[in-house]
Amino acid sequence: MHTVFWFSMNLQFVKESWRDKSLFIALCLAIPGTTLAYYGTRFTYEALGNTAWGSRFIGFGSSWFVFPILTWLILKESMFTSKTLICAALAFSIILIQIFWE
């Protein structure tokens, strides 16, 4: 889901020729992205003992792994700044708390 949404928002910055097609790309990726979000939330909700907060925090935390990696690989923007690394560590901590804390 986060990968689909990354491309729907950032593909306009990858190639100049895609900039004027960015709204079309976003609309085409909206249904697949929303479907993935729906099922991801559903399965995470059930896996974490029927908690919406847990599902939300897993979604937030996992986005912090997808966005920096894709931005680094495709847009060539470094994720190795102190601010980004601290945020990624905090996101990883949030995921671990939601999975392992009873």
* Helix-strand pattern: HHHHH
Helix content: over 70%
Structural class: mainly alpha
Give the integer mean of the pLDDT values: 92
Summarize the structure in short.
By secondary structure, the chain is an all-alpha fold. The chain contains 5 helices and no strands.
Question: Which terms would index this structure?
Answer:
single chain, 84% helix, 102 residues, 5 helices, mainly alpha
Question: Can you give a write-up of this model?
Answer:
By secondary structure, this protein is mainly alpha-helical. The chain has one domain (2-100). The protein is built from five helices and no strands. Helix 1 runs parallel beside helix 4 and helix 3 packs across helix 4. The longest helix has 26 residues, at 22-47. It is flat, with a radius of gyration of 15 Å. The two termini are 27 Å apart. The model has no long low-confidence stretch (mean pLDDT 92).
